[in-house]
Design goal:
Alpha-Beta Plaits, elongated, 3 domains, 5-stranded mixed sheet
């Protein structure tokens, strides 16, 4: 899942997230923040369902429960990264706490000063009143300064939370993106597939899976070397990304030279058209020598398309799409087959 909210939307989600954090026993840390932010956004169906089930038996979720939800439904962020973010978060909260405590002490002293001024007014003691007015003016200035420091600290903390959120997004992307192609890796694919299968369908639509495999890829590596093989995989990844600009359709490197596209709430006709577009653009692609610009390689790709059927789980859908892909390979390659 990607965070695509506008600044205004994310500000509203921040407000809801902070409220949710206060309703549970888990600590205020980046892990809890990520869980409740995605829950507030309503874009992680698996997480929403799991929280609904968990709160039936544990109305105020503990650290252990939130950590489990995070690991299963949000992301397996690198532990070094998460520790660094946690340290920053703790420092930020400590600064806010110190400022709030200082303001609280100042408010107490200010209250005592006001009480003394009230007493002097009641007694109509001119000498005492003059002294209390001077003391009240000084205390007012101190109180204003203390509140200003707290206000600045809160604003700085808001900015820091936004930075921590960005750090979490980057860490999550590192965990779910294939570094060579910048499309989803297998972990990201599995998560998006599970989310897609939980989405409701209209009467005339279906969740579809497209699988692709680069034809004769071993021959490319054997003839041109693995550096060229990596260039081919990168180029195919670029083709798929250009064919699938809609974020509702997820592109993934399924493994090796095999790729996949998830098309939720689609039709077989639309999915076949998408697969054919990928096949044609891949065949039209020319890889050139970077020094001479001479065309050194053209490639083709085979595809298989399957739609979700009643009773299907993720493995059933993958198996049928992979079977259709295998049929394309067996019947001559450079073609698309529908399961």
């Amino acid at each position: 899942m990607r965070y695509t909210e506008t600044k205004e939307q994310s500000a509203e989600l921040l407000r809801k997230t902070l409220a949710l954090l206060g309703q549970h026993d888990a600590c205020f840390n980046p892990v809890s923040f990520a869980v409740w932010y995605e829950f507030a956004a309503g874009t992680n169906a698996g997480l929403t369902q799991a929280i609904g089930q968990a709160t039936q038996t544990e109305p105020r979720l503990s650290d252990a429960s939130v950590i489990r939800l995070y690991q299963e439904f949000v992301a397996d962020v690198d532990q070094v990264v998460i520790q660094q973010i946690a340290k920053q978060f703790q420092l930020m909260m400590a600064g806010v706490a110190d400022s709030a405590q200082q303001t609280g002490h100042q408010a107490g002293s200010f209250g005592e000063t006001l009480s003394g001024l009230s007493t002097a007014l009641q007694r109509n003691d001119a000498a005492a009143l003059s002294s209390q007015v001077a003391e009240t003016l000084a205390s007012t200035a101190q109180m204003q300064a203390s509140v200003q420091v707290l206000h600045q600290q809160v604003n700085a903390s808001r900015q820091e939370i936004e930075k921590l959120q960005s750090d979490l997004v980057r860490a999550r992307n590192d965990a779910t993106l294939d570094p060579l192609t910048q499309v989803l890796n297998r972990k990201g694919f599995d998560r998006q597939l599970a989310s897609m299968l939980q989405q409701p369908l209209g009467s005339d639509s279906a969740h579809c899976l497209l699988m692709f495999d680069i034809d004769h890829f071993k021959q490319v590596n054997d003839t041109h070397g693995h550096v060229m093989g990596d260039r081919v995989i990168q180029a195919v990844g670029e083709v798929l990304r250009s064919c699938v600009p809609d974020k509702a359709h997820s592109v993934a490197r399924f493994g090796g030279e095999e790729f996949a596209i998830l098309m939720p709430s689609s039709t077989l006709k639309q999915s076949m058209a998408m697969a054919e577009s990928v096949r044609q653009r891949t065949k039209a692609m020319k890889l050139r020598d970077r020094r001479t610009q001479e065309v050194v390689l053209t490639i083709s790709i085979s595809g298989g398309v399957a739609s979700m059927l009643p009773g299907d789980d993720a493995q059933d859908l993958i198996a049928r799409a992979d079977g259709a892909l295998y049929k394309s390979k067996q019947t001559g390659r450079d073609r698309v087959t529908c399961a």
